[in-house]
């Protein structure tokens, strides 16, 4: 049993390491592309402006709901994870978004994501930026003022060691500690709750990810 768990953890770490290498390579390519395109723009070529705009968008066409709205409801699973059954739109917006749940599990969001490479924030985040991180396959750990300080510290330590995660306070949520991924959410009793590891294992860059491998760096940070 222990050997199987160790093998699973080793495979997971290898997968995360490979994603990080791919992300770094992609960032290098993007920087080169940005420099080249900027030179073209300076030269006054209109085509260069079009390329630049396209290079800054990471949306896939045809992936939003036909009406551009989020609709549906949570369905609770036997494992305690609630799954959103319905539509989660994926439009880039500049205005505030009214999400049906807090923390939100998806929907329209800002074009810029919150950095989620094991980033721990001490202030509440703008939901529309964090939702973009979820779209990239991140797990978002949130806690209210009711969460024990010791649990907050332990969770922060775990997040810092795990790529594609982020953590922030949220006094609007109904439970002390919550874990959120795109379309999925659960409450945990504390940092030592075994469901924390299970949620991370399943949803960090999990099958629910709309944009697997997308960047969790070069976004916003506090």
From TrEMBL:
Key word Transmembrane present: yes
Record's compositionally biased regions (Polar residues): 1-10
Chain segments annotated as transmembrane: 32-53
Keyword terms of this UniProt record: Membrane, Transmembrane, Transmembrane helix
Biased composition (Basic and acidic residues): 15-27
Protein name (record): DUF3105 domain-containing protein
Residue ranges of the region described as Disordered: 1-28
UniProt source species: Streptomyces pactum
């Amino acid at each position: 049993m222990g050997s199987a768990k160790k093998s699973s953890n080793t495979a997971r770490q290898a997968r995360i390491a490979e994603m990080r290498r791919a992300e770094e390579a992609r960032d290098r390519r993007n920087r080169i592309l940005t420099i080249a395109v900027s030179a073209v723009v300076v030269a006054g070529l209109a085509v260069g402006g079009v390329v630049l705009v396209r290079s800054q968008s990471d949306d896939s066409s045809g992936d939003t709901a036909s009406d551009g709205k989020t609709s549906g409801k949570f369905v609770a699973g036997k494992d305690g994870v609630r799954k959103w059954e319905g539509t989660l739109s994926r439009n880039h917006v500049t205005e505030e978004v009214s999400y049906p749940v807090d923390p939100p599990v998806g929907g329209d969001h800002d074009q810029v994501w919150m950095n989620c490479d094991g980033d721990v924030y001490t202030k509440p985040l703008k939901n529309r930026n964090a939702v973009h991180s979820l779209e990239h396959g991140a797990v978002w750990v949130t806690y209210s003022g009711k969460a024990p300080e010791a649990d907050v510290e332990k969770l922060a330590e775990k997040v810092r060691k795990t790529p594609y995660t982020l953590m922030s306070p949220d006094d609007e949520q109904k439970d002390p500690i919550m874990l959120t991924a795109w379309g999925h959410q659960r409450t945990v009793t504390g940092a030592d709750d075994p469901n924390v590891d299970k949620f991370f294992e399943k949803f960090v860059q999990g099958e629910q990810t709309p944009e697997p491998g997308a960047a969790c760096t070069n976004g916003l940070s506090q």
